[in-house]
């Protein structure tokens, strides 16, 4: 069982503000879990605490049901794949992949067998005698993955491994990493700030903000049922604007909309995703401020209730001086204006 459990995990430096604030998280055996959040939210710190590269301030970490707080990093049976590849420039691909096994003093024939098997899985067989400077970014990242795979660890930790690659390579490597996860049947803990990576790769997503977990759920639930305004805005685009409710009625650009539920609050924040801006039966005329073509569709930017908003529309949709959007209360999310929590509708 390669599960990972964090209990009341805290990390602070010099007794100052917590970088990780009392986190509880259970990662299941063979799960692919993604930690996502903006820079400085604590996601990479969590990886370093799990790996033992940093000491925890308080709390407990279990790997395979074993408390590892005082276990040396090399004895935790984890593999860490870094953003920077961290390859030895003077070694060949084969030597880089074999290095960890040699340090463990494994038999030479066994080392060769493991490296060749990993090289085949990652399409590196023709590159084994090359050095890192002779490789592309995608090839270097595959070598870094191969070096981790040969160790057959209980847990893989990946810290933004695709951030240095161009857009096309990132798509290819996302598919490659998911395929490897399925083949290896090992627990993967993956850190990214890229919401597309989070949505396409994770069995579950952990959304972090300022060292606190905001929501842990499947990609579908994170996207469709965000717990609060932060999650709604971070995972997928969402437009936000304020409304005032009187007699279960509110206005958007002076047009009336009716609520079927009384939230017991007068001032609320409404959220609606750009792709839902043509779904409804209530038409609003807006004045486009900017139109961006993104290939097979375009984004048009305008104001609703004095807030900047956007709509994702077909490439041939009329976005002239006056543009019509069509929205429905059923596609709206309602948030408490004070604490940002989503209100059930």
Could you give the topology of this structure?
Blueprint: E1 4-12, E2 18-27, E3 32-36, H1 43-51, E4 58-63, E5 66-67, E6 78-81, H2 93-103, H3 108-121, H4 137-149, E7 155-159, H5 167-184, E8 187-192, H6 195-201, E9 204-209, E10 212-217, H7 219-224, H8 229-234, E11 239-244, E12 249-252, E13 255-258, E14 267-272, E15 282-286, E16 290-293, E17 297-304, E18 307-314, E19 323-327, E20 333-336, E21 342-343
Structure commentary:
This protein has 345 residues and is of the alpha+beta class. It has 8 helices and 21 strands. Strands 6-7-8-3-9-10 form a 6-stranded mixed β-sheet, with helices on both faces. A 4-stranded antiparallel β-sheet has the order 2-1-4-5, covered by helices on one side. A 4-stranded antiparallel β-sheet has the order 11-14-20-21. A hairpin with a 3-residue loop joins strand 16 and strand 17. The longest helix is centred in the middle third of the chain and has 18 residues. The protein is globular and about 75 Å long.
Q: Calculate Rg over CA atoms.
A: 24 Å
Count of runs of 4 or more consecutive helical residues? 8
What's the mean pLDDT score?
92
CATH architecture of the largest domain: 3-Layer(aba) Sandwich
**Which blocks of ≥5 consecutive residues have pLDDT under 50?**
none
How much helical structure, as a percent, in the residues? 10-25%
**β-sheet strand percentage:** 25-35%
Order of helices and strands: EEEHEEEHHHEHEHEEHHEEEEEEEEEEE
Look at the structure and name the CATH superfamily of the largest domain: P-loop containing nucleotide triphosphate hydrolases
CATH topology of the largest domain: Rossmann fold
Overall shape: globular
Class by alpha and beta content? alpha+beta
Question: Structurally, how many domains make up the residues?
Answer: 2
C-alpha end-to-end distance? 40 Å
Give the strand tally.
21
Largest sheet: 6 strands, mixed
> Class of the largest domain, according to the CATH hierarchy?
Alpha Beta
Sheet with the most strands: spatial strand order: 6-7-8-3-9-10
């Amino acid at each position: 069982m390669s599960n990972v459990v964090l209990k009341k995990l805290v990390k602070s430096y010099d007794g100052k503000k917590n970088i990780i604030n009392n986190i509880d998280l259970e990662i299941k055996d063979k799960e692919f879990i993604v930690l996502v959040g903006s820079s400085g939210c604590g996601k990479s710190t969590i990886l370093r605490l799990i790996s033992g590269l940093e000491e925890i301030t308080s709390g407990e970490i279990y790997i395979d049901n074993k408390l590892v707080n005082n276990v040396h990093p090399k004895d935790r049976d984890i593999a860490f794949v870094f953003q920077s590849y961290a390859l030895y420039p003077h070694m060949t691909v084969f030597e880089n992949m074999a290095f960890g096994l040699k340090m463990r003093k494994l038999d030479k024939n066994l080392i060769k067998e493991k490296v060749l098997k990993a090289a085949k899985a990652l399409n590196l067989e023709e590159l084994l005698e090359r050095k890192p400077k002779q490789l592309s970014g995608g090839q270097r990242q595959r070598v870094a993955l191969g070096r981790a795979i040969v160790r057959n660890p209980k847990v893989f930790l990946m810290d933004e491994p695709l951030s240095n690659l161009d857009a096309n390579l990132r798509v290819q490597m996302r598919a490659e990493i998911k395929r490897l996860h399925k083949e290896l049947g090992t627990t993967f803990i993956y850190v990214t700030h890229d919401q597309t990576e989070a949505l396409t790769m994770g069995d579950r997503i952990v959304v972090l903000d300022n060292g606190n977990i905001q929501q842990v759920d499947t990609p579908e639930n994170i996207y469709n049922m965000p717990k609060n305004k932060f999650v709604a805005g971070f995972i997928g685009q969402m437009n936000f604007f304020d409304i005032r409710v009187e007699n279960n009625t509110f206005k958007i650009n002076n047009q009336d909309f009716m609520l079927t539920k009384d939230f017991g609050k007068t001032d609320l924040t409404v959220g609606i995703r750009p792709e839902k801006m043509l779904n409804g039966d209530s038409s609003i005329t807006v004045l486009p401020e900017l139109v961006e073509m993104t290939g097979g569709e375009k984004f048009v930017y305008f104001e609703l209730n004095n807030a900047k908003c956007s709509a994702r529309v077909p490439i041939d949709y009329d976005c002239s001086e006056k543009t019509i959007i069509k929205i429905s209360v059923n596609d709206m999310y309602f948030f408490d204006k004070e604490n940002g929590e989503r209100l059930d509708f």
